[in-house]
Amino acid sequence: MAKTNPASAEKPYLREFFLEQRKRLCEDRQRKDDLDAEIQIRLLMSRDYRDADTVLLYMARRHEIATSMIMHAALANGKTVGYPVCMNDHHMIFRRIAAVSDFVQGRYGILEPKTECETIVPDDKTLCVCPALSCDMRGFRLGFGGGYYDRYLKDFTGKKAALCYADSIVPVIHSFDYDIKMDVIHTDSFTRYMK
User: Fold this and answer.
1) Using N-to-C axis directions, what is the helix angle for 68-76 and 29-44, rounded to 10°?
2) pLDDT 10s digit of each residue in the chain, 195 long?
């Protein structure tokens, strides 16, 4: 993907800009699959992944960066693996999965763990992998506008990692007090740890 320069750092503009960019990328499925694999490999090679006992992932939709490679590796490595469930109060919880058969159709048409799956209580050995349309060089993430991750991560004590395409990194995203800064950003061409 060619590097582009958005004309504004405002979230609504950036969200529209990068959603359009994602739609164009999805037209070249092989290119997207290759970029997604590189991003997942970078995360799997990271110290945060190695040190984590629990890995919280998201179920990627078509235009999001895939996480299936991370899921299979984490299960094979004996880590606890969790996926989000969106609750009625605009908050989310993560439930543990042991196999692909633990998923059912959830809200918004996204697969989520069954209700009988154990709710995960995160600790400082938990790695939360967050989706991002864009990130800035300070570690702030542009999500899809629901605010679920910012609410979930408010009191989170583990490591926070965003997955983002390298050409979707911008110098600054206008942030607010409730925005949660990532500890690390993994892209298809570099990994950036925040100070």
Assistant:
1) 30
2) 444 567 677 888 999 999 999 999 999 999 999 999 999 999 999 999 999 999 999 999 999 999 999 999 999 999 999 999 998 888 999 999 999 999 999 877 889 999 999 999 999 999 999 999 999 999 999 998 888 999 999 999 999 999 999 999 999 999 888 899 999 999 999 999 997
User: CATH number, domain at 112?
Assistant: 3.40.50.10420
Domain membership of residue 162 as a residue range: 28-190
One-letter amino acid for residue 133 of the chain: L
Q: Which residues contact 136 (CB under 8 A, 6 or more apart)?
A: 9, 169, 170, 171, 172, 173, 175
Is 21 domain-assigned? no
How many domains does the chain contain in total? 1
Is there a domain that residue 163 lies in?
yes
